[in-house]
Inverse folding.
């Protein structure tokens, strides 16, 4: 006898208006996404679920005090072999699997949590109000999670806009359509919507503990209709399984339980779920697969061989042809499951099409959709902003005590790169704020008189003058300055020009020289009487703290015989008007008046601040040269570089070279400490090992020892070889220890585009339509402007170098490319603003574009770049996570953003580890069709920029996006470790970048690595072995071999040698120093793009547009090659999590939010600014400075509508139809 699997046809449903026609099937749930699985689909069922107290749903407590679903006497559940009471919820399948029950339980708890919070803030709300509002919020949260987190993974981010299921980032949605029928598609309900059964793994593994050390294996048959796990308190273990274990790979398969044993119970045989789904499709009259390919606009296969490039290779087409007589016979479920998934999606194009159409219908056909603006069901914009913070991760965290850490995106596995586990109290996992539902230190004093101060300053000026004269005489006699300036063969020339002081810096350095010498006078007592000298009991730390507090500005300002008259152009380029204009929304170029109370905070040409007091050999000026083991010297910076930073060809598995390049452009936005110059601004040639005595006191050359792996330790003339090093320009504005200045503003303000003074900015402008100046190269219509800013341009005259806001733009190809992209983006935005507001002046367009560019760059830094570098956890800990909606309210007007020495001199040089020797050049498909650029031959060389054949800047852009960065570690590529600024004619003219970094730290008085361990939450190392908490044994051995004492380790090699934190690129100390700085750059910036300051803030809609910014979209908009690009430019392209998308699918900023008019136009009606008009019978709009604001009216008397308006106008207004449907039906019958 032939055996059959039982199948009963689905219950029928009458057709609309009881008309004749094909058989239709009934749906017992609503077709809307309305949480009916929680609340039920009818009033009777919903009432059974309510506690009728404070808006709560019924619960029960297990013996383990877990809050569980209530029980029901309906149905039979089993505990091993004994019947057990089932759980009661809104859905019929609550008890089907324990995993299903667990999620029902979480949503029950979520409802009750919300109800309790609403009760706390609205004590007068009754049970009904609390229940309905809690239900409304929960439904909105489920809708948001479904469309914001779930669907992008199922159908792919590329398809969201195409199917009309891409959510808005701000404001209301207006896509509701009265004519859209939200009824569930039969194809979805009976076939496609069941695809997830193929994703079930073979078994379930309960994670019994948070660490995942204990796992209990369970079969699916053991948890079906079995509530035992929930009663035994295993809900946390179930959720850990769902969060941490992988799904089965999508395809035409199901595990053995679902295919052979489904619902077997105590019998011998189960059902074949796959066969049941196929049979149900036939029962429901669902057409075959090919019909839907055609309906979705996809290529329709004519025969089985046409499927070869459509379906997965695992499906045997010959076997399929034996099963079905014709290609048109094949069931939708079968070939839909077998399709190759779309890039970035779990399903193929046919399933994606139908799923997309289903969820489009749900969204557009739901009058209560959470983004809709129809009164009275709409949320306020503030409430809607809070709903948009919802993530399933937060829901799980808030409702499970045993889950302490969770990945932000729960639908993808946790990883240490972009989805690292976060503690549940982290601010990265946003919490909904239900309140939207409510009806400086004193100065120390030095024991010294004003007369003594004035004398010390006068003596200091005389000493400084004599030192300068002596230095000029030495240089003149030896002719070294002239040689250095004339020689085009020395790397010292390129390096000195890279760190060249601006005229404003030189002015400051003259004052600083006087203050340095005045400090020495006070410390030594030279030229002072016994009564004028400082008390002997003042120790070094006390003097370091007291001397900078002494105000000597009056005395220094009067030493005109040494300082000379002030350069009038300084005032023109760096205006410092007072009082500050608190009403302007535009930054000054120098940072002046960003802080209204302390206008100098964060300014360009300001001394850097310190996290720890400096460590100079003499306490105030001389670089650290001696070991902690007295009598022994510190190792040469080059020796440390050889021991710790030698090249190792290890590429990062995930991050692109763009991560490094963006880091450099950020660094060039806020850090540029110039080096000292000789008389007449001459470059100091500090390459001789005795140059500190024979050339300048500012020389601090780096010795090369015998046995060096690359450089000969002797010159051709037999003299010892050194790497040239010039100490940084003096920059202190007070008495005390030597300090250095930053020529740029400390703020992230796009100064690398615009410059840090008004004079620099003006040189870069076109002064027409807000545009920046550019060069048209023909094949590159918008190149950087050619100019002589780069003094060491190695490709001129045939290939001139370029000008930009930062003078270092020609240093290497990747940097020049980034400058070009940002210039183009400025001009693209300016052109759009000019079209939108054609009455705006050039100045207005320029300033507004600069403001937008600064905001976009800040968003890229805080939203994309920092989370990768610091990791999710640290980004949250330092409050660096951008808000998804609303404004940042943490601005502190007592906060100083000034760059720290540790950040600029050591920590933010971590990117040197990421630099490749070769910069790949790629085409639009990320393929290398030409040789890459050898970095050691590309410094200050713009030849590539002019090469059409090799793809000019376009191939370099794609190379940055498509190539791996070097791994972050202590190893640094030879291109910068042996060949920095090397001249091609001499292989030994290069410099060593890590050695320069180490030497710069000693020059700036940066304390050793061990001094910062306690500050950053680690214990101070007593010996080298104590470093094992953050370093591996090989690294510790390298340090032990080169340093005499653990306290000798310089900050740069120390922090570069730490193991990265989990989920971060860098280790704990880099995280500490970088996090602290970026926290202040956000908290101390009055113009920070998310701030809520009324004078400086963007409108809510403008801010929502800025939040769309990604580096990928910016590249798309300004590159000829980029047509498809990965959404995250800092991660390598990946077919699932970071699949390249069409540029058109990436959100772009809508500049119409910057429309500036004295009137608004709504539906062809003009509304004057500040006025309100009734646009339709039931909608009013007000014209505000931020654009039209429209709201649906609450209609108290529908009869009056028909008196005031035509019946045709009323029925054409959806808002009227919703509120006055009864009267409209009545009037329709009369007509």
């Amino acid at each position: 006898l032939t055996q059959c699997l039982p199948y009963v046809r689905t219950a029928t449903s009458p057709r609309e208006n009881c008309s004749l026609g094909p058989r239709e099937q009934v749906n017992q749930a609503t077709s809307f996404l309305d949480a009916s699985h929680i609340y039920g689909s009818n009033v009777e069922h919903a009432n059974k679920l309510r506690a009728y107290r404070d808006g709560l749903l019924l619960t029960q407590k297990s013996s383990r005090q877990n809050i569980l679903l209530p029980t029901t006497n309906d149905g039979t559940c089993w505990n091993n072999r004994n019947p057990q009471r089932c759980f009661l919820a809104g859905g019929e399948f609550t008890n089907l699997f324990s995993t299903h029950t667990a999620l029902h339980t979480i949503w029950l708890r979520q409802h009750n949590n919300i109800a309790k919070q609403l009760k706390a803030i609205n004590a007068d709300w009754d049970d009904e109000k609390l229940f309905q509002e809690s239900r409304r919020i929960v439904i909105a949260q489920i809708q948001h999670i479904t469309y914001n987190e779930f669907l992008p993974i199922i159908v792919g981010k590329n398809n969201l806009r195409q199917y009309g299921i891409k959510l808005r980032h701000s404001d209301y949605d207006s896509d509701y359509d009265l004519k859209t029928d939200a009824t569930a598609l039969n194809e979805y309900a009976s076939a496609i919507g069941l695809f997830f059964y193929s994703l079930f793994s073979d078994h379930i593994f309960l994670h019994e503990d948070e660490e995942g050390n204990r796992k209990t294996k369970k079969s699916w048959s053991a948890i079906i209709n079995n509530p035992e796990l929930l009663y035994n308190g295993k809900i946390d273990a179930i959720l850990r399984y769902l969060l941490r274990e992988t799904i089965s790979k999508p395809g035409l398969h199901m595990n053995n339980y679902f295919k052979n044993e489904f619902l077997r119970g105590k019998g011998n045989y189960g059902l074949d779920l796959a066969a049941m789904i196929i049979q149900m499709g036939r029962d429901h009259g669902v057409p075959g697969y090919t019909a839907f390919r055609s309906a979705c606009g996809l290529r329709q296969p004519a025969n089985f061989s046409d499927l070869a490039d459509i379906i997965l290779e695992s499906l045997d087409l010959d076997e399929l042809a034996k099963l079905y007589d014709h290609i048109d016979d094949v069931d939708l479920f079968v070939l839909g499951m077998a399709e190759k998934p779309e890039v970035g999606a779990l399903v193929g194009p046919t399933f994606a099409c139908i799923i997309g159409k289903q969820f489009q219908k749900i969204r557009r056909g739901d009058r209560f959709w959470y983004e809709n603006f129809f009164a009275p069901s709409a949320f306020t914009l503030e409430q809607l902003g809070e709903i948009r913070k919802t993530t399933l991760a937060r829901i799980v965290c808030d409702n499970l005590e045993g889950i302490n850490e969770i990945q932000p995106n729960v639908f993808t596995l946790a990883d240490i790169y972009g989805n690292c586990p976060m503690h549940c109290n982290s601010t990265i996992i946003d919490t909904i704020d239900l309140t939207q539902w409510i009806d400086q230190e004193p100065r120390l004093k030095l024991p010294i008189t004003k007369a003594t101060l004035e004398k010390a300053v006068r003596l200091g000026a005389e000493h400084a003058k004599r030192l300068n004269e002596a230095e000029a005489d030495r240089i003149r006699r030896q002719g070294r300055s002239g040689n250095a300036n004339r020689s085009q063969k020395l790397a010292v020339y390129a390096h000195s020009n890279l760190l060249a002081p601006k005229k404003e810096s030189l002015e400051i350095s003259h004052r600083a020289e006087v203050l340095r010498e005045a400090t020495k006078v006070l410390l030594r007592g030279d030229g002072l009487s016994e009564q004028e000298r400082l008390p002997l009991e003042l120790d070094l730390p006390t003097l370091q703290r007291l001397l900078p507090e002494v105000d000597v500005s009056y005395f220094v300002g009067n030493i005109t015989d040494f300082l000379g008259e002030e350069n009038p152009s300084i005032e023109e380029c760096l205006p410092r008007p007072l009082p500050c204009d608190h009403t302007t929304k535009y930054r000054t170029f120098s940072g002046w008046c960003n802080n209204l109370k302390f206008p100098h905070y964060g300014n360009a040409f300001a001394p850097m601040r310190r996290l720890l007091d400096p460590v100079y050999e003499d306490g105030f000026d001389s670089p650290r040269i001696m070991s902690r083991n007295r009598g022994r010297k510190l190792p040469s910076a080059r020796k440390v570089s050889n021991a710790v930073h030698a090249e190792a060809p290890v590429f990062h598995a995930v991050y692109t070279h763009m991560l490094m390049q963006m880091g450099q452009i950020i660094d060039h936005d806020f850090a540029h400490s110039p080096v000292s110059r000789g008389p007449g601004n001459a470059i100091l040639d500090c390459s001789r090992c005795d140059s500190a005595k024979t050339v300048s006191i500012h020389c601090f050359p780096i010795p090369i020892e015998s046995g060096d792996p690359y450089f000969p330790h002797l010159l051709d003339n037999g003299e010892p070889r050194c790497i040239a090093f010039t100490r940084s320009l003096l920059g202190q504005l007070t008495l005390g220890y030597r300090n250095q200045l930053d020529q740029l503003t400390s703020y992230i303000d796009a100064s690398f585009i615009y410059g840090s003074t008004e004079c620099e900015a003006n040189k870069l402008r076109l002064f027409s339509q807000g545009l920046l100046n550019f060069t048209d190269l023909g094949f590159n219509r918008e190149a950087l402007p050619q100019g002589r800013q780069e003094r060491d341009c190695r490709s001129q005259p045939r290939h001139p170098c370029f000008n930009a806001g930062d003078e270092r733009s020609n240093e290497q190809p990747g940097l020049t490319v980034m400058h070009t992209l940002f210039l183009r983006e400025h001009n693209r935005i300016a052109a759009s603003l000019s079209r939108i507001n054609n009455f705006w002046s050039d100045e207005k367009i320029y300033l507004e574009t600069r403001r937008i560019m600064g905001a976009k760059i800040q968003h890229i830094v805080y939203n994309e770049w920092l989370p990768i570098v610091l990791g999710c956890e640290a980004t949250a800990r330092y409050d660096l996570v951008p808000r998804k909606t609303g404004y940042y309210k943490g601005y502190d007007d007592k906060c100083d953003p000034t760059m720290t020495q540790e950040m600029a001199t050591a920590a933010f040089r971590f990117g040197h580890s990421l630099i490749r020797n070769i910069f790949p050049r790629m085409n639009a498909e990320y393929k290398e069709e030409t040789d890459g650029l050898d970095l050691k031959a590309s410094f200050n060389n713009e030849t590539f920029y002019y090469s059409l054949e090799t793809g000019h800047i376009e191939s370099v852009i794609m190379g940055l996006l498509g190539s791996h960065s070097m791994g972050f570690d202590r190893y640094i590529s030879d291109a910068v470790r042996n060949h920095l600024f090397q001249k091609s004619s001499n292989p030994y003219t290069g410099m060593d970048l890590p050695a320069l970094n180490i030497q710069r730290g000693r020059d700036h008085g940066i304390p050793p690595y061990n001094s910062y361990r306690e500050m950053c939450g680690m214990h101070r190392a007593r010996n080298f072995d104590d470093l094992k908490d953050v370093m591996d044994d090989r690294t510790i051995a390298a340090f032990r071999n080169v340093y005499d004492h653990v306290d000798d380790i310089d900050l740069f090699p120390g922090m570069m040698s730490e193991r990265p934190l989990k989920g971060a690129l860098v280790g704990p100390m880099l995280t500490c120093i970088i996090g602290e700085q970026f926290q202040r750059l956000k908290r101390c910036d009055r113009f920070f793009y998310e701030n809520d300051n009324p004078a400086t803030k963007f409108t809510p809609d403008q801010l929502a547009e800025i939040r769309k910014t990604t580096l990928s979209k910016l590249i798309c908009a300004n590159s000829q090659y980029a047509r498809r690009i990965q959404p995250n430019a800092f991660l390598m392209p990946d077919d699932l999590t970071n699949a390249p998308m069409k540029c058109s699918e990436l959100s772009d900023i809508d500049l119409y939010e910057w429309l500036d008019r004295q009137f608004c136009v709504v539906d062809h009606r003009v509304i004057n600014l500040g006025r309100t008009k009734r646009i339709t019978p039931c909608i009013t709009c007000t014209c505000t400075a931020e654009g039209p604001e429209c709201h649906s009216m609450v209609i108290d008397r529908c009869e009056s509508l028909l008196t005031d308006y035509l019946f045709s106008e009323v029925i054409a207004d959806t808002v009227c139809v919703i509120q006055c449907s009864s009267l409209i039906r009545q009037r329709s019958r009369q007509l």
User: Anything to note?
Assistant: The radius of gyration is 35 Å.
